[in-house]
Amino acid sequence: MEEILTDVGIYVVLTGVRMPRMNSVVERWVQSCRRELLDRCLIWDEHHLRHALREYEHFYNQHRAHQALAQAAPLRTVPDPITDPERIIDLNIRRRDRLGGVLHEYSYAA
To answer: What is the mean pLDDT of the chain?
Structure first.
């Protein structure tokens, strides 16, 4: 089986010894990727799949809120909370669609 996978460019990575969480972390990422990306768009070919996965990876690490990180993204720092009522009223938030609107990024407008 490994020979067949290697021929098409897929390499098998075995789970480390005494590392039971290793599989669960990867399975969680695959589940998120399927639910948030692959179930919502039609993939035409390998090039399109690779592009979509690169976009999703960037979104997942830079913009997507993670509950375990207090709604922060892994590679982005949490902004300071806005406590001034005047700023909250005039808050201008912009949405940027990625992958044709499948993924959405939100940011403060300058």
So the answer is: 82
Phi, psi values for residue 63, rounded to 5° = -130, -30
Of the candidates 73, 47, 79, the one whose C-alpha atom is nearest the C-alpha of residue 59 is 73
Most distant CA pair in the chain, distance? 63
pLDDT value of residue 110: 60
The whole-angstrom separation of Cα 23 and Cα 56 is 20
* Residue carrying the six token digits 């098409």: 8
pLDDT at 107 over 90: no
Q: How many structural domains does the chain have?
A: 1
Domain with 68, as residue range(s), is 2-108
So what's the pLDDT on residue 53? 92
